[in-house]
Write a structure and sequence with these properties.
Elements (H helix, E strand, L loop, with lengths): L3 H7 L4 H23 L8 E5 L5 E3 H17 L2 E6 L6 E2 L6 E9 L10 E9 L19 E9 L3 E6 L4 E7 L4 E6 L10 E3 L10 H11 L11 E2 L5 H11 L2 E4 L12 E2 H14 L3 E3 L16 E2 L1 E4 L1 H9 L3
Bound molecules: 1,6-di-O-phosphono-alpha-D-fructofuranose.
């Protein structure tokens, strides 16, 4: 089976980017090991602190963030980091060529129930003018990403990644420690009968999503004339993995609760990397008003509405916004 290195070379990734990705994944392998030890290693449960988003941090959020931060800072390839678990940009090496944004442990509430969790990352060029502690360099649209992906810590540890030449999925061979290409050039089916949304927020959704979901629920008796199934992992990384494997539509839409929070998911280290993976696999990713990868960020922890997945179904959903 092909190794990650050869696939990245075949896709034309520059050497320094390959080395950076390998460094990042070394950190993810360590997270995978810590996660698999669970209660035996005392890594489950919450800390007493909150992150900048006001969410209580799990011990594994803090451990995973530290592992990635340490390994990337030491590497010399990275100029600065932005992380869900860091209030501000973390300066790294002044000559680093890249910026890395990550959610070190997405879906961390799932740690308590031994369910799916993962690390999500995106990589962009560091502008030469930037000082390593300057957040302005991170305010580039997602279309500027040079690589993005996630590592899913599930029954197998899997990596989904793109460097802009298709989306490939690899499985960690824990006997040798390498990621092997198990699902090359993923193509998301254009049609689907499966949707994902946190229905407990229904009363807050904006009207187009209310109308769209009502039509899905009406099944064969409604205007869509087919029955839909619903799935919700409560970790975006798990839901997007299912979409890449067999199609579907995932929504975390704009809701009316707090005008300061247009959606729950963060642009730089959740929405953008998943949008890049999805588009490279033939799917679509929108905020409802436009392509996610064209949103110009205003701050590093910015949130956006997310509608992502199988092409025809996302288009059907977007038609409710017209
Ligand atoms: P964390 O990164 O804080 O663990 O949050 C996970 C997440 O942002 C995303 O992965 C899920 O889709 C979403 O939250 C689920 O949240 P709710 O179940 O509260 O809607």
């Amino acid at each position: 089976m092909k190794r990650l290195n050869s696939q990245m070379q075949q896709d034309g990734a520059p050497l320094e980017l390959i080395l950076l990705i390998r460094t990042l994944l070394a950190g993810c392998k360590e997270i995978s090991f810590r996660v698999s030890q669970g209660a035996l290693a005392g890594v489950l449960g919450s800390t007493l602190s909150e992150n900048v988003q006001g969410e209580t941090q799990k011990k594994l959020d803090v451990i995973s963030n530290q592992i990635l931060k340490d390994i990337l800072k030491e590497s010399g390839y990275v100029k600065a980091i932005s992380s869900e678990e860091e209030d501000d940009v973390v300066p790294c090496h002044p000559d680093g060529k890249y910026l890395v944004s990550f959610d070190p442990l997405d879906g961390s509430s799932n740690t308590e129930i031994n369910s799916l969790i993962g690390t999500i990352f995106s990589i962009a060029h560091a502008p030469q003018w930037m000082e390593p502690d300057d957040p302005a360099a991170f305010l580039q649209p997602g279309s500027q990403m040079v690589a993005a992906g996630y590592v899913l810590y599930g029954p197998s540890t899997m990596l989904a990644m793109t460097t802009g030449k298709g989306t490939h999925i690899y499985t960690l061979d824990k006997t040798h420690g390498g990621f092997l290409l198990t699902h090359p050039n993923i193509q998301v089916p254009e049609q689907t009968a499966e949707f994902s949304i946190n229905a407990s927020n229904q009363r807050h959704w904006e009207q187009p999503i209310q109308n769209y979901v009502a039509d899905l629920l009406a099944g064969t008796e409604g205007p869509r004339e087919k029955n839909y199934n619903m799935r919700w992992v409560a970790a975006m990384v798990g839901d997007i993995h299912r979409l890449l494997c067999r199609g579907g539509i995932f929504m975390y839409p704009y809701d009316k609760r707090d005008p300061g929070k247009p959606g729950k998911l963060r642009l730089l280290y959740e929405a953008n990397p998943m949008a890049f993976l999805m588009e490279q696999a033939g799917g679509l990713a929108s905020t409802g008003e436009g392509r996610i990868m064209e949103v110009m960020p205003e701050e590093i922890h910015q949130r956006v509405p997310v509608i992502i997945g199988s092409k025809d179904e996302v288009e059907a959903c977007l038609s409710y916004y017209d």
